[in-house]
Amino acid sequence: VSYFIFLGLYSVEIVVKITGYGFHKWRLSRWNLYDLAITALALITLIPRFMGHQLWTLRLEKFLLITISFRLAQRIDSLQVLFQALVIALGSILNITAVFMVVLIVYAIMLRELFGMTRLGPSTTGIANFESFGNTVLMLIRMTTGENWDNVMHDMMVEPPNCTPSRTSYLDGDCGSRPWAYIMFLSFYIVCTYIVLNMFIAVIISNFSFAYQQDSLTTLITREDLRNFKTTWAKFDPR
């Protein structure tokens, strides 16, 4: 019930804004377009709700309610600067993400070939392993966060008599390789943690500094000044 009431009030607010400002002036604000998009999606979720699809509809409704909280950035100047920094940094973040995906795929292919047949250890399971490309990618993403990556590396160092070696080729047995484990795991951790992750941080910090400086240098009248002016002017001209 609260969701329907909230959605109704939100829809009425949009209609009032369009009526008061006029459509041409209303659509010039990106936040107004953002409100319209969220409200339209929320209205669309009502269709599957009445058709009996409750579970995923409720999850989508909760997500939409969370996205509405982003409107706080329209009211708080500090959040507005953060959003500007995020928008400015978005292109660079996508480029770094593409580089990270290339590194991830290359290492996933190599680790799959080297340790795809290695016997599972204490830190590897039926899902957390290198037996398939998908599982390998998930393992690498987990290792990027620093979670238990060293224990996984030691699992890939298993040697006889704890495994069954092959007389023809290392790749045909279920034993690991100590040298390859050190090379692959340490290099991946260094590249992702000390290079790629720091690139993300550097891009965000530099763009935040740029957005903050632009906001400080170019904005002689702040949004707080405008609010105070509107409040004071309303006392003399209520209309």
Automatic annotation (TrEMBL):
Compartments where found: Cell membrane
Keyword Transmembrane helix in annotation: yes
Primary site of residence: membrane
Pfam families: Ion_trans (PF00520)
Ion transport domain: residues covered: 4-214
UniProt keywords, alphabetically: Calcium, Calcium channel, Calcium transport, Cell membrane, Glycoprotein, Ion channel, Ion transport, Membrane, Transmembrane, Transmembrane helix, Transport, Voltage-gated channel
GO biological process: calcium ion import across plasma membrane
SUPFAM superfamilies in UniProt: Voltage-gated potassium channels
Superkingdom assignment: Eukaryota
Listed transmembrane segments: 33-50, 85-110, 180-205
Family (UniProt): Belongs to the calcium channel alpha-1 subunit (TC 1.A.1.11) family.
Protein name: Calcium-channel protein CCH1
Gene: CCH1_6
